[in-house]
Amino acid sequence: MISSRWGIMKSSVAGDFASDVAMVREYTMLSHKRLYSLYECVLACEKHNIPGDYVECGVWKGGAVGLMALANLRYGKGRRQLHLFDTFAGIPEPDGEVDGRRAVEEARQLGVAALGRLTPNPQLYDNMGRGVGTIESNRHLLERIIGYDKAFVHYHQGLFQETLPMVAATIDSVAILRLDGDWYASTKVCLHFLYDKVVRGGFVIIDDYGAYEGCRKAVDEFLTERSIKIRLRRVGSELRFFEKP
Ligand SMILES: C[S@@+](CC[C@H](N)C(=O)[O-])C[C@H]1O[C@@H](n2cnc3c(N)ncnc32)[C@H](O)[C@@H]1O
To answer: What is the pTM of this model?
Structure first.
Protein backbone atom coordinates (compact mmCIF):
# COMPACT_ATOMS: atom_id res chain seq x y z
CA MET A 1 0.00 0.00 0.00
CA ILE A 2 1.24 3.49 -0.81
CA SER A 3 1.26 6.20 1.78
CA SER A 4 -0.38 9.49 0.75
CA ARG A 5 1.29 12.83 1.42
CA TRP A 6 -0.62 13.06 4.71
CA GLY A 7 0.70 9.73 5.99
CA ILE A 8 -2.68 8.06 5.76
CA MET A 9 -3.03 5.02 3.52
CA LYS A 10 -4.17 6.17 0.11
CA SER A 11 -6.54 3.25 -0.38
CA SER A 12 -8.35 3.90 2.89
CA VAL A 13 -8.61 7.65 2.15
CA ALA A 14 -10.08 6.85 -1.25
CA GLY A 15 -12.74 4.64 0.35
CA ASP A 16 -13.57 7.22 3.04
CA PHE A 17 -13.70 9.98 0.44
CA ALA A 18 -16.04 7.98 -1.80
CA SER A 19 -18.53 7.32 0.97
CA ASP A 20 -18.35 10.91 2.29
CA VAL A 21 -18.89 12.35 -1.19
CA ALA A 22 -21.92 10.15 -1.65
CA MET A 23 -23.48 11.84 1.41
CA VAL A 24 -22.95 15.39 0.12
CA ARG A 25 -23.23 14.87 -3.64
CA GLU A 26 -26.66 16.39 -4.14
CA TYR A 27 -25.79 19.35 -1.90
CA THR A 28 -22.83 20.64 -3.91
CA MET A 29 -22.07 21.87 -7.42
CA LEU A 30 -18.37 20.99 -7.09
CA SER A 31 -16.71 18.44 -9.34
CA HIS A 32 -15.17 15.27 -7.94
CA LYS A 33 -11.69 16.74 -8.47
CA ARG A 34 -12.46 19.90 -6.50
CA LEU A 35 -14.03 17.92 -3.71
CA TYR A 36 -10.99 15.64 -3.52
CA SER A 37 -8.61 18.58 -3.24
CA LEU A 38 -10.78 20.03 -0.47
CA TYR A 39 -10.68 16.68 1.34
CA GLU A 40 -6.88 16.73 1.10
CA CYS A 41 -6.75 20.22 2.62
CA VAL A 42 -8.83 19.03 5.58
CA LEU A 43 -6.63 15.96 5.99
CA ALA A 44 -3.54 18.18 6.02
CA CYS A 45 -5.04 20.48 8.66
CA GLU A 46 -6.08 17.57 10.86
CA LYS A 47 -2.83 15.64 10.47
CA HIS A 48 -0.62 18.67 11.16
CA ASN A 49 -2.88 20.17 13.84
CA ILE A 50 -3.35 23.42 11.95
CA PRO A 51 -5.58 25.43 14.27
CA GLY A 52 -8.64 27.39 13.21
CA ASP A 53 -12.13 27.28 11.86
CA TYR A 54 -13.38 26.03 8.53
CA VAL A 55 -15.06 28.82 6.58
CA GLU A 56 -16.90 28.88 3.29
CA CYS A 57 -18.21 32.06 1.66
CA GLY A 58 -20.79 30.93 -0.89
CA VAL A 59 -22.13 27.62 0.33
CA TRP A 60 -25.28 27.10 -1.79
CA LYS A 61 -26.77 23.90 -0.27
CA GLY A 62 -23.76 23.22 1.96
CA GLY A 63 -22.13 20.19 0.33
CA ALA A 64 -18.56 21.51 0.45
CA VAL A 65 -18.89 22.43 4.13
CA GLY A 66 -20.51 19.04 4.67
CA LEU A 67 -17.47 17.33 3.20
CA MET A 68 -15.14 19.31 5.48
CA ALA A 69 -17.33 18.30 8.43
CA LEU A 70 -17.22 14.62 7.46
CA ALA A 71 -13.45 14.63 7.00
CA ASN A 72 -13.06 16.35 10.37
CA LEU A 73 -15.25 13.72 12.03
CA ARG A 74 -13.10 10.94 10.56
CA TYR A 75 -9.61 12.40 10.96
CA GLY A 76 -9.87 15.25 13.47
CA LYS A 77 -9.07 15.11 17.16
CA GLY A 78 -11.80 17.62 17.98
CA ARG A 79 -14.64 19.42 16.30
CA ARG A 80 -14.05 22.62 14.30
CA GLN A 81 -16.18 25.74 14.24
CA LEU A 82 -17.85 25.82 10.82
CA HIS A 83 -18.84 29.18 9.34
CA LEU A 84 -21.26 29.33 6.43
CA PHE A 85 -21.68 32.69 4.70
CA ASP A 86 -24.40 33.13 2.09
CA THR A 87 -27.54 35.07 1.30
CA PHE A 88 -29.28 31.65 1.40
CA ALA A 89 -31.67 33.34 -1.03
CA GLY A 90 -29.80 33.42 -4.34
CA ILE A 91 -26.68 35.01 -5.78
CA PRO A 92 -26.53 38.73 -6.60
CA GLU A 93 -26.22 39.52 -10.31
CA PRO A 94 -22.74 39.91 -11.82
CA ASP A 95 -21.34 43.32 -12.74
CA GLY A 96 -20.81 43.52 -16.48
CA GLU A 97 -18.12 46.16 -15.96
CA VAL A 98 -15.81 43.81 -14.11
CA ASP A 99 -16.99 40.20 -14.07
CA GLY A 100 -16.28 39.46 -17.71
CA ARG A 101 -17.97 38.09 -20.75
CA ARG A 102 -18.73 34.62 -19.47
CA ALA A 103 -20.58 35.96 -16.40
CA VAL A 104 -22.58 38.43 -18.48
CA GLU A 105 -23.46 35.81 -21.08
CA GLU A 106 -24.53 33.24 -18.49
CA ALA A 107 -26.70 35.83 -16.74
CA ARG A 108 -28.22 36.99 -20.04
CA GLN A 109 -29.14 33.45 -21.04
CA LEU A 110 -30.97 33.06 -17.75
CA GLY A 111 -32.81 36.36 -18.10
CA VAL A 112 -30.76 38.10 -15.41
CA ALA A 113 -29.19 41.56 -15.78
CA ALA A 114 -25.47 42.17 -15.17
CA LEU A 115 -25.61 45.52 -13.41
CA GLY A 116 -23.92 44.39 -10.21
CA ARG A 117 -26.95 45.16 -8.05
CA LEU A 118 -26.44 43.83 -4.55
CA THR A 119 -29.72 42.00 -4.08
CA PRO A 120 -30.01 38.22 -3.91
CA ASN A 121 -31.48 36.90 -7.11
CA PRO A 122 -32.92 33.38 -6.91
CA GLN A 123 -33.38 33.29 -10.69
CA LEU A 124 -29.76 32.47 -11.56
CA TYR A 125 -29.73 29.00 -10.03
CA ASP A 126 -33.47 28.42 -10.32
CA ASN A 127 -33.26 28.92 -14.07
CA MET A 128 -30.41 26.40 -14.20
CA GLY A 129 -32.73 23.92 -12.51
CA ARG A 130 -30.59 23.78 -9.40
CA GLY A 131 -32.74 25.75 -6.97
CA VAL A 132 -31.64 28.04 -4.18
CA GLY A 133 -29.54 26.85 -1.24
CA THR A 134 -31.61 27.74 1.81
CA ILE A 135 -30.54 27.67 5.45
CA GLU A 136 -32.93 24.76 5.86
CA SER A 137 -31.16 22.65 3.20
CA ASN A 138 -27.79 23.41 4.81
CA ARG A 139 -29.11 22.59 8.27
CA HIS A 140 -30.65 19.37 7.01
CA LEU A 141 -27.32 18.18 5.59
CA LEU A 142 -25.03 19.30 8.42
CA GLU A 143 -27.15 18.62 11.43
CA ARG A 144 -29.51 15.83 10.42
CA ILE A 145 -27.72 13.82 7.72
CA ILE A 146 -24.13 14.30 8.94
CA GLY A 147 -25.00 14.85 12.60
CA TYR A 148 -22.36 17.55 13.23
CA ASP A 149 -22.83 19.11 16.65
CA LYS A 150 -24.95 22.17 15.91
CA ALA A 151 -23.15 24.22 18.55
CA PHE A 152 -20.21 24.27 16.10
CA VAL A 153 -22.17 25.34 13.02
CA HIS A 154 -22.68 29.06 12.34
CA TYR A 155 -24.94 30.34 9.58
CA HIS A 156 -24.28 33.95 8.58
CA GLN A 157 -27.20 34.95 6.44
CA GLY A 158 -27.07 37.99 4.16
CA LEU A 159 -24.78 39.56 1.60
CA PHE A 160 -21.09 39.10 2.47
CA GLN A 161 -20.89 42.89 2.23
CA GLU A 162 -23.32 43.10 5.17
CA THR A 163 -22.46 40.09 7.33
CA LEU A 164 -18.65 40.17 7.19
CA PRO A 165 -18.18 43.63 8.72
CA MET A 166 -20.24 42.43 11.70
CA VAL A 167 -19.04 38.85 12.04
CA ALA A 168 -15.36 38.87 11.08
CA ALA A 169 -14.23 40.21 14.45
CA THR A 170 -15.83 37.20 16.16
CA ILE A 171 -13.69 34.73 14.18
CA ASP A 172 -10.22 34.30 15.71
CA SER A 173 -8.41 32.04 13.31
CA VAL A 174 -9.18 30.18 10.13
CA ALA A 175 -7.58 26.94 8.93
CA ILE A 176 -9.47 26.75 5.64
CA LEU A 177 -10.96 29.73 3.83
CA ARG A 178 -12.97 28.59 0.84
CA LEU A 179 -14.20 31.35 -1.46
CA ASP A 180 -17.00 30.43 -3.82
CA GLY A 181 -18.94 33.64 -4.44
CA ASP A 182 -18.15 33.79 -8.18
CA TRP A 183 -17.98 37.57 -8.68
CA TYR A 184 -15.41 40.34 -8.19
CA ALA A 185 -17.27 42.14 -5.38
CA SER A 186 -18.10 38.90 -3.56
CA THR A 187 -14.49 37.67 -3.67
CA LYS A 188 -12.82 40.97 -2.78
CA VAL A 189 -14.86 41.59 0.35
CA CYS A 190 -14.15 38.11 1.69
CA LEU A 191 -10.39 38.49 1.21
CA HIS A 192 -10.53 41.91 2.83
CA PHE A 193 -12.23 40.68 6.00
CA LEU A 194 -10.96 37.13 6.32
CA TYR A 195 -7.51 36.70 4.76
CA ASP A 196 -5.69 37.92 7.85
CA LYS A 197 -7.50 35.35 9.98
CA VAL A 198 -6.00 32.46 8.02
CA VAL A 199 -3.18 30.90 10.03
CA ARG A 200 0.24 29.91 8.73
CA GLY A 201 -0.11 26.52 7.04
CA GLY A 202 -3.82 27.10 6.53
CA PHE A 203 -5.41 27.06 3.09
CA VAL A 204 -7.08 29.68 0.91
CA ILE A 205 -9.16 28.13 -1.86
CA ILE A 206 -10.62 30.17 -4.71
CA ASP A 207 -13.17 28.18 -6.63
CA ASP A 208 -13.72 30.50 -9.59
CA TYR A 209 -10.30 32.02 -10.32
CA GLY A 210 -10.14 30.56 -13.81
CA ALA A 211 -13.88 30.78 -14.43
CA TYR A 212 -14.76 34.45 -14.06
CA GLU A 213 -12.55 37.43 -14.86
CA GLY A 214 -13.87 39.38 -11.88
CA CYS A 215 -12.91 36.69 -9.40
CA ARG A 216 -9.40 36.50 -10.85
CA LYS A 217 -9.07 40.29 -10.76
CA ALA A 218 -10.18 40.43 -7.11
CA VAL A 219 -7.55 37.86 -6.10
CA ASP A 220 -4.74 39.33 -8.20
CA GLU A 221 -5.47 42.85 -6.96
CA PHE A 222 -5.54 41.73 -3.34
CA LEU A 223 -2.26 39.82 -3.60
CA THR A 224 -0.59 42.78 -5.31
CA GLU A 225 -1.95 45.37 -2.87
CA ARG A 226 -0.65 43.30 0.03
CA SER A 227 2.61 42.29 -1.70
CA ILE A 228 1.81 38.63 -1.05
CA LYS A 229 4.04 36.37 -3.10
CA ILE A 230 2.64 32.89 -3.40
CA ARG A 231 2.30 30.27 -6.09
CA LEU A 232 -1.33 29.53 -6.87
CA ARG A 233 -1.82 25.77 -7.19
CA ARG A 234 -4.26 24.60 -9.85
CA VAL A 235 -7.05 22.08 -9.68
CA GLY A 236 -8.42 21.79 -13.20
CA SER A 237 -8.67 24.97 -15.21
CA GLU A 238 -10.71 27.01 -12.70
CA LEU A 239 -9.89 26.37 -9.05
CA ARG A 240 -6.74 27.75 -7.44
CA PHE A 241 -5.53 27.36 -3.89
CA PHE A 242 -2.50 28.07 -1.76
CA GLU A 243 -1.11 27.31 1.62
CA LYS A 244 -0.59 30.50 3.62
CA PRO A 245 3.11 31.16 4.02
C1 LIG B 1 -21.45 28.68 -6.90
S2 LIG B 1 -22.46 28.84 -5.48
C3 LIG B 1 -21.57 28.01 -4.20
C4 LIG B 1 -21.42 26.53 -4.44
C5 LIG B 1 -21.11 25.75 -3.19
N6 LIG B 1 -19.84 26.10 -2.61
C7 LIG B 1 -21.18 24.27 -3.42
O8 LIG B 1 -20.50 23.51 -2.71
O9 LIG B 1 -21.95 23.85 -4.29
C10 LIG B 1 -22.25 30.53 -5.05
C11 LIG B 1 -22.95 30.94 -3.77
O12 LIG B 1 -22.41 32.20 -3.38
C13 LIG B 1 -23.43 32.98 -2.81
N14 LIG B 1 -23.01 34.39 -2.96
C15 LIG B 1 -22.34 34.96 -4.00
N16 LIG B 1 -22.09 36.26 -3.77
C17 LIG B 1 -22.60 36.52 -2.54
C18 LIG B 1 -22.61 37.68 -1.72
N19 LIG B 1 -22.08 38.84 -2.14
N20 LIG B 1 -23.17 37.59 -0.50
C21 LIG B 1 -23.71 36.41 -0.07
N22 LIG B 1 -23.74 35.27 -0.80
C23 LIG B 1 -23.17 35.33 -2.03
C24 LIG B 1 -24.69 32.61 -3.60
O25 LIG B 1 -25.85 32.87 -2.87
C26 LIG B 1 -24.45 31.12 -3.87
O27 LIG B 1 -25.12 30.30 -2.93
So the answer is: 0.95
